[in-house]
Amino acid sequence: MNDSATDKTHLELPDHFYRPLLENTDNVVWVVCKDQNRIVFINRDLSGVNKEKIYEQGFSVIWPVITIETLQPLLDAFERAVMVGERTENLRTKHSNAMTGEVEHYNSTIAPIHDREGRVSHIQVSSRDVTQNIRAQRTIDILNSVSASVQNSLLGANLFEAVGSRLKKHDIKIAVLIVDDRGTARLEYSSFPKRKMNKTLSLLEKEKILSGIPMSELPNWKNLAKGSKGQFFDDPHYYLRSRFPDLEAGMNLMPVIELLELKKIIVAPLRVNREVIGGFLMTSDSLSKTDLTAVKAFAMQFSHAIMYSRLQADCDKMRDLLHCTLTNTRDSIFATDSRGSIVLWNRASSRLFGYKTLDVIGENIGIIGMDANLLGKFLAAAKKGETIEQSEMSLRASDGSHKEAYLTCSGLEAGDGKLPGLIFTVTESGKK
Are the CB atoms for 105 and 134 separated by under 8 Å? Predict the structure, then answer.
């Protein structure tokens, strides 16, 4: 009795009671006739196609906004619903919004609707917009894909090439501009074809950027430098006009866009603390504002990689300078580790003691007549931060002769408070 009453109450609810529920749901709900020629209900616009237009022209008006590769599985699901009454869950379709051109993604459930006799009369589709989820996952995938390349190549000369190759697999092209300490900008890397890039720079009258161009000759650089989080441009024309306003009526913009196949663009400054050391451009048809997060991460990694590279270059220069100084100085300079093994031996040491560098490296300092007790004295002083000057000392040469010399000894610091060894400067008596 109660069950019958419940059923009767349910059946007596008017059709318009359910319509507001469907119209207020987040999903796009649409009902298609069995023959798929007509849509009898849809609760909202779909991918930029007005629902009134859908009512008038039927399901086929939706086809152009759904990519071919995902439309066919949808039609196949319709066919299965009609022929065997099969329900399909979580069918992914990819759309191009008819109004904005933005790529959209939907997960749809396709279910048959039966008439009173149990025959399929309509097909109901409930489509959930998962575009933001897909874009977020895509950003994560790109970051994961590139992260390993960045870490493996952080101090290498091929960092940008490694990242550029990875991003190409996602149909993304990049260009990296670096500014040196003198305020000169140079195109450090581009994943665009070299010939096309050279032609583009010629059209823009910026060929000098390959070897270095003053920042004053780059229009609107300050605007980029201020945009710490990056900027998104869905129109390459607008981007180029904003960067190169001097081009007459945009006459060279279209060839540039066609040459480089520019799509949507994201640009971001390369910044370390408050210093802008370059700029980063990324272009792809699939970019959106949500990708600004990924670009910010790339820019941060690139910025630190550039600074590490500069520090490495500075260290290399200092090493070369030190090597030149050690090689050409008149004084004998050599160094040992904490156990007394020789790790450095300059040219003057070879002249003074007669031992070639290759013959003495790794040998104990005792080879030139310095005993363990004296070495211990030097180490103890070095640990206290003291420098020892030995006014007169007799050291042994390779031929057995003795050299009367002045000797200075200091500790070598490892930078972590530890003492890895000692460095000696020796001047033969009478030559001081």
Answer: yes
Residue 105 has pLDDT above 90, yes or no: yes
**Fold agreement between 2-129 and 329-428:** yes
Name the amino acid, one letter, at 272: V
355 Cβ contact list (under 8 Å, min separation 6): 345, 349, 367, 368, 398
CA atoms of 100 and 98, how far apart (whole Å): 6
Task: State pLDDT tens for residues 375-429.
Answer: 888 888 888 888 888 767 889 999 999 988 898 998 887 666 677 889 999 988 7
Fold of 2-129: Beta-Lactamase (3.30.450)
Task: List 341's β-bridge partners, or say none.
Answer: 364
CATH architecture of 134-312: 2-Layer Sandwich (3.30)
Per CATH, which fold does 329-428 belong to? Beta-Lactamase (3.30.450)
Q: Are the C-beta atoms of residues 362 and 341 closer than 8 Å to each other? A: yes
Question: How far, in Å, CA of 409 to CA of 349, rounded?
Answer: 15
Q: Which of 241, 279, 403, 263 is nearest to 332 (CA)?
A: 403
In sequence order, which residues have a C-beta less than 8 Å from that of residue 357 and are 6 or more positions away? 345, 346, 350
Q: Write the CA distances from 202 to 77, 195, 206, integer angstroms.
A: 53, 11, 6
- List the domain boundaries for the chain: 2-129, 134-312, 329-428
Q: Are 107 and 74 in contact (CB under 8 A)?
A: no
Residue 201, classified by CB atoms within 10 Å of its CB into exposed (0-12), middle (13-18) or buried (19+), is middle
CA atoms of 284 and 169, how far apart (whole Å): 11
Cβ atoms of 208 and 202 within 8 Å: the answer is: no
